[in-house]
Each structure stands twice: as C-alpha cells, then as structure tokens.
C-alpha cells in the first residue's frame, strides 16, 4: 500500500478556496497528501478504484468529480446547491477522515503518473523527433503550467503530440471551467508556440474551441 500522507504535528486545518470554475471548490489542508508535482483526477466513482478517500467523497450525492494534489482536494459539484451549504459538511468530513489517518490511496499515484507520462511521450508509432518534442512539451507543462493551474484547483496534462497539434487533458476545476478555452489559447498555446516552434495548436479533449 502506498504511503498515505504526512500529517502535521497538530490537528488538521482546512479552508475552502474558490476556483475560476463556479462548480468547483478547492479545499486546502496543512497536510501532505501527495508528493509535489503528483496529482490524480477522478471524473467519477468508477475511476476512483485506487483512492478510498475519493470513493468516500463520491458518497455525497452532490460530488461529481474529485481532484487530489499535494496539499489540497478539489471537489466539483453536480447539483444546484450553493457552496455555502456544502462547504461545512465537506470540510468536517475531510478533517475527520485525515485526522483519523484514513487511507488516501491503495496504489502509489507517483509511479502511475510517471508511467503514463512516459507512455504518452514515446508512442510506438512516433518518430524520434516527435518523441523529443513531446518530452519538451511535458517538461514545459510540468514546470510552467502545472504550478499556476494548481493554484486554481486543477491541472492540464499532456496526452499526445502529432503534426504540430498538442492534445491535453483537463483535470479538476479545469474540466468544465468557462475560462478553460481562454487559458488554453491565450496562455498555454502561446507559451508552447514560443518555446517549441514545432507546435501549431493546442486542443483539449471534451471541449470545443
């Protein structure tokens, strides 16, 4: 079983922080849930097979998506309930669960994430040049995009590169966020075009630009 978390010396404190996505709320903890740079995104209960914490959160009928990073959990709601009604319940649950040292993961997400990135960067049918370009893109997303996007409670990860087109996945609060298309085009696409001349466009699965 993976290491669960590094708990603080005293009680766990949690505060809620709004994200650009009005349906998502970021719950920030004074406890380490994952190593820096590692995150996991569960779009539904079925995807959360390796996270007992996420499975418990999906028991709340208004929870539609769970994103876990180093020291925060982003929850996306599916109902018209106001966050003012939901935040106290979710904060109390998270505090109690983590203070009781409840299991966060059953499989180390760091190893899974590293393997997934390696597979995305080196598909069998890609040329050496495309593989090198893919790795440059992954490094830029990890070093420049991830820290900024995590501040908003989500992440944007690399899926593929082909013929100048970069395809990414939207995670956490970024999925379904009204400003996601602007972030992709005015932010990430411009960055990648400037740093990697081979890049012509950036697209995200599940949204239309």
TrEMBL record:
<feature type="domain" description="Scaffold protein Nfu/NifU N-terminal">
    <location>
        <begin position="14"/>
        <end position="101"/>
    </location>
</feature>
<protein>
    <submittedName>
        <fullName>Fe-S cluster biogenesis protein NfuA, 4Fe-4S-binding domain</fullName>
    </submittedName>
</protein>
<dbReference type="InterPro" id="IPR034904">
    <property type="entry name" value="FSCA_dom_sf"/>
</dbReference>
<dbReference type="Pfam" id="PF08712">
    <property type="entry name" value="Nfu_N"/>
</dbReference>
<dbReference type="InterPro" id="IPR035433">
    <property type="entry name" value="NFU1-like"/>
</dbReference>
<dbReference type="InterPro" id="IPR036498">
    <property type="entry name" value="Nfu/NifU_N_sf"/>
</dbReference>
<dbReference type="Pfam" id="PF01106">
    <property type="entry name" value="NifU"/>
</dbReference>
<dbReference type="InterPro" id="IPR001075">
    <property type="entry name" value="NIF_FeS_clus_asmbl_NifU_C"/>
</dbReference>
<dbReference type="InterPro" id="IPR014824">
    <property type="entry name" value="Nfu/NifU_N"/>
</dbReference>
<comment type="similarity">
    <text>Belongs to the NifU family.</text>
</comment>
<dbReference type="GO" id="GO:0005506">
    <property type="term" value="F:iron ion binding"/>
</dbReference>
<dbReference type="GO" id="GO:0016226">
    <property type="term" value="P:iron-sulfur cluster assembly"/>
</dbReference>
<dbReference type="GO" id="GO:0051536">
    <property type="term" value="F:iron-sulfur cluster binding"/>
</dbReference>
